[in-house]
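Q: Sequence in, structure out?
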Amino acid sequence: MPTIGLITEYNPFHNGHLHHLQESLRITGAEASVAVMSGHFLQRGEAALLDKWTRAEMALVAGVDLVLELPFSFACNSAPYFAQGAVQCLDALGVVDGLCFGSEAGAIAPLDRAARLLVDAANEVAAGTASSLRQGLSYPAARARILARLDPDLPPGLLASPNNILAIEYLRALQLNASPMRPWTIPRLGAGFHSTDVSGHLASATGIRRLIGAGGDVEHLLPIACGHIFKRALDEGRFLDQERLFTVLQALLLQEVESLRDIYQVEHGLDHRISDKAMSATSFTDLVSAIKSRQWTQTRIQRVLIYVMLRVSGAEMRGFLRQGPLYLRVLGATTRGREVLARARKKKNLPVIGDPSRARAVLRRFYHDRPESCHLAEQMLNCDLRATRLYGLLQSTQRGVHSNQDFFHPVQWV
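A: Exactly. Output:
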């Protein structure tokens, strides 16, 4: 059964995602799809609009066959780590034949050319990027400058588009992992990644979230099969409340500045800047705007503030990133998705976790001869569980449910 891999956030699942899924199956001839999806916190340092189970359910009823959760350590991180972790998860399943992603370029050749530069001239790229960072450029701009210098024939603006940037990182990850998966890309349709235009039937997730915040109707922007699931979540208050997020964060930031110094990516000087700006900020957006600078981009600051809330230490995160994902967490599957899992049983090279209450036993059995890997896998999973507990505090309505929701949500078999 030919199987295609997708790397996703589905925040929330909308018509553009449905187009991506259907086109991926069409152009590759695949019969099944596997989506690696971020959990409760996303690549750009944002909390998801809806919880991961609701988003997985929307994906499954729309036609995705198997949804795996990308561990927090990779889901809420820079594009290279996000891509690396997702590609490693798909590879680890052992049965995924290709990876299909959207891009503004709409063609593999120019994206692959840039990705090969990142691999073949890694030292030169690192040195050139560091030099530009010292001159005050942001990381994306610094990376674009050195690649343009190394290959002046790269299409102008290739590295200025968010989906192209991720696509290049996916291709780089495929190369670094010597992945057997074949890459495919489809042109991104409709509104741009950051666009708030919701005039047609294809809008960006950003535009949809903005419309929801304004009290608008988004039903026409979602697949018909997903509408009732989305409405049910909103009616039950199972969606992000930004004010709650800021309250939780502020309670932590008003402590002594020393409490920030072990947090991942809080380098010297940033701790004092965060602490100082927290004293007068009135919202999460206000705080991020006050902290960001040419050196510290908005997305990096957003991620750092999430790390603060989850108390993610630098030592802990660096250990996770060196090792890569250490398990495959199943959020849901269709009948065909269960067939994919059955085929993967003898081919996978990471343990599969369905029920977190049995995770420790699964990890210890798989890593019985590698106690250090087992310990790190347990720490990585604990970070995911902390993320769920935190997200429960951020939802609009507190429903009197247990904070450890990971232990109360079974795998969704659709």
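The first strand starts at residue 3 and ends at 8.
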